């Protein structure tokens, strides 16, 4: 046989609770029966049940709050997973850019090597030209002139006549 207990809360909500089996009534000390005995409650059964229901109600609210927190964390995790997927796709899209940059870097290194070799060749060529220039600027060996072999002094009139003769003949 089942029993139904109606509990009304202060906020006006009503709770119907059905018990599957009836709890045996407590035995008193004067009873000689050796059957099961429930401890005496410090309050009436209705008050104890109301306290039990209030405790369950508080635990349910706490569970709802915890479920909300867990739902929020799961939502955050889903957003993080979605962001991670987007970053993986973006990273995969940058692979070809990375390869292109690496090709460009290799080409620039090759160009630098060519320019360094050209620089070395230029320095060698400049050094050779400097040697040739220094050799060309060295005074040629001039034989010692005897005093009788000294050139005659040329007068101004002679220079003018030579210039005018070359100028008129031209």
Automatic annotation (TrEMBL):
<protein>
    <submittedName>
        <fullName>Uncharacterized protein</fullName>
    </submittedName>
</protein>
């Amino acid at each position: 046989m089942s029993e139904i207990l109606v509990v009304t809360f202060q906020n006006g909500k009503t709770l119907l609770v059905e018990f599957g089996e009836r709890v045996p009534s407590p035995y008193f000390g004067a009873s000689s029966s050796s059957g099961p005995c429930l401890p005496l409650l410090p309050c009436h059964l209705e008050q104890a049940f109301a306290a039990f229901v209030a405790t369950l109600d508080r635990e349910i609210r706490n569970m709802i709050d915890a479920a909300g927190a867990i739902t929020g964390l799961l939502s955050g995790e889903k957003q993080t997973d979605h962001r991670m997927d987007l970053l993986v796709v973006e990273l995969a899209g940058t692979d070809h850019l990375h390869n292109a940059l690496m090709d460009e870097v290799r080409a620039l290194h090759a160009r630098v090597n060519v320019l360094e070799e050209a620089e070395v060749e230029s320095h060698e060529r400049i050094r050779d030209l400097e040697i040739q220039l220094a050799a060309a600027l060295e005074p040629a060996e001039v034989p010692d002139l005897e005093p009788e072999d000294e050139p005659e002094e040329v007068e101004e009139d002679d220079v003018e006549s030579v210039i005018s003769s070359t100028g008129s003949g031209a």
